[in-house]
Amino acid sequence: MTDIQQTVYVVEDDEAVRDSLELLLKSDEKQVQTYEDAATFLADYSEEMAGCIVLDIRMPGMDGMELQKKLNEKNSILPIIFVTGHGDVPMAVDAMKEGAVDFIQKPYREEALLEKIEIALEQDLEQRRTLDEKQEIIRRVESLTPREHEIMDRMIEGQANKVIAIELEISQRTVEIHRSRVMHKMGTHSLAHLVRMVLSVKDLIDAR
Amino acid sequence: MTEAENEHPEVTVLLVDDNPQNLKVLYETLKDKGYRLLIANDGEKALDLAHRHQPEVILLDIMMPEMDGYEVCERLKADPETADSAVVFLSALDDLEAKVKGFALGGADYISKPFQSQEVIARVKTHARVIRLERELQAQNRELQSDQARILNSISEGIYGLDENGIIEFANPAAGVIMRSSVEDLIGRNFFETHFSTAAECPDGLPVHATCCQGVAENQRDIRLLRADQTGFPAEYRATPKLEGEDLRGAVVVFRDITAELENEQALEEARELVREQRDQLAHTSRLTTMGEMAAGVAHEVNQPLTAITNYTRVSKRMMSAEHPNLNLLQETLDKIEAQSHRASEIIRRIRRFMKKPATGKDVLSVAALLEDTRQFAEVDARNNDGSIELLIPEDVPDIVADPIQVQQVALNLIRNALEASREIGSDLPVEVSATRAGEGFVRIAVRDYGPGLAEDAGENLFLPFYTTKEEGMGIGLPTCRSLIQAQGGEIGFERPEGGGACFFFTLPVADAPAAPSSEPSSAGAV
């Protein structure tokens, strides 16, 4: 797997906070991109964006919560760290329910923020890796012929070669050939691994 | 005197002659002409009858024994009761000297004997009418004079008539009462010497002096006058020049003791002061409440620069830990820290000023600066309420005179209400704060929102204490605003603008306006 270029996206209406955060993160060797409001970020958003969002919960115009909803609609997996003010904890809890990774209250200790950002970036990386793996599995599944797919489904259900041969009215030898092709195409030698792989993408395949 | 009574109502004619024959002839001549006829055959009787009945006309024989007609006439004229009767002498004497003497003694006319009845009737008729008219005129005059006297007597203000030297020629009873002296004692005295201890030194500057000597009308309040017993009292007076054509003949002075009035004013002023204090306290409480409501926003507002400072500080430290620190960049970052700390202290300063206890007092204020400051303050709320504020202030709006804190309090209150109203219906349109010149001497500041507007029945109730349309409202915001604006000499009100929403406005006096009528009582008028 190639290195993913991760960026910290800062969405903050207050110029001084935005500027200081940008300097702070850059001094911490982070790639930073800043936005002065939610709408600008939304317009700029693409699936290729990797990293995390540091998002002010209170902003004029579209606020942080709204942006989170819009991003969820776009199936964004970018982790969000909400920056909240005094008394915004109830909002932050709602934000967490909507999938935010964390929140931090202003004024914060910068170590705490940096720590949360590290965790978020790690999580993003993890998610992306998993997502890549799943996509690889799906790609492999999709390379199977219909007959191979059918045989694989029965393998996963635990049917013996003999049973498969009888039910499909083919020779046991033919089943064995299909089976070895499935294992080869899916890149595994173990039936248990095959089962795990296919189950991990089941919901994605069903969704299609 | 029966049927002819109407012709000469109650005209009495006295006939005086020692000769019964003559009396009879006169009587016969004048009877049935509508007169009341009295008869006397000597001087004493004539005087007695005349005194008791005051006849209009007396036909008086000159040649009588004991008291002749001249003497009777003289005595009639000496008696005020009979002085105005028309005396017509009757005599056979037909010489000039007798006639002249008769006229000299006050006689009105002369009839020669033997008399013609037509002449007697005509002369009596003429004199009766003249006397009648004269008496009516006198009666009217007397009535008029007594009316004037009654008025002068019943007026509770003292009235002096002064001559051009300040000598009191006339004083009404009230003047005596006020000066604790009799009217008689006052008359003839010098007004200035009597009522001012400093009259001897410099009479020129004294009240009324200019009226007496130069004919300038005066009007002063709260001057000190001396009474006859040398005690003093505060007085108010008006002095009007007394003119005869072009000539100055002194002055008329109307004055009154205002001791009680001043005491009432003092009490009123104390009450006003109390109201002022309570209003200021209420205003202060209201400001505290507002700040309480805005606390979350304020905390957010202060946290922004603090957060920035924390970040910049961390950055600076990292820069310094580098092997070759970039000093320029470090300097730049430290400058940013400084700017942010100013920003935080500016917010604190604004809040502290707003919370200050007694308001600072009136000042000349720039409307634009004041409203811009208020807008920044209100934006604490605007951010929380997801609204925005737009200022529309033309450059030619003049400065105003007002208490800056209290005006800001009112503007902030109206803006916050407007933001709340806009939020209620999720309006994206900004709250508009505008200032315009309103008529002579006033600036009108209006706060317009595009919220749900005011209920039909809201009306003047909006400004009544404890009336509220908000669930959590106390109903003291707008009443406080009204009392504050009224204290500045302005007015507050609302409109239902076309295009929806609500508009609240208030006016404040312009700084360079001609002296606005003050609520404070003026101590002394111009001399």
What is the global morphology of chain A? elongated
CA-atom Rg of chain A in angstroms: 23 Å
Give the end-to-end Cα distance of chain A, rounded to a whole number of Å.
Answer: 25 Å
The multimeric state of the shown protein is heterodimer
Q: Order of strands side by side in the largest beta sheet of chain A?
A: 2-1-3-4-5
The CATH class name of the largest domain in chain A reads Alpha Beta
The number of helical elements of chain A comes to 9
Q: Taking all residues together, what is the mean pLDDT of chain B?
A: 84
Corresponding CATH architecture of the largest domain in chain A: 3-Layer(aba) Sandwich
CATH superfamily of the largest domain in chain B: Histidine kinase-like ATPase, C-terminal domain
As residue ranges, the low-confidence spans of chain B are: 1-6, 516-527
Structural class of the secondary elements of chain B?
alpha/beta
Q: Which geometry of chain B do the CA atoms define?
A: elongated
Overall pLDDT level of chain A = 87
**Domain module tally of chain B:** 3
Order of helices and strands of chain A: EHEHEHEHEHHHHH
Modified residues (4-aspartylphosphate) (chain A): 56
Pfam family, one (chain A): GerE
Keywords (chain A): DNA-binding, Phosphoprotein, Transcription, Transcription regulation, Two-component regulatory system
GO biological process, one term (chain A): phosphorelay signal transduction system
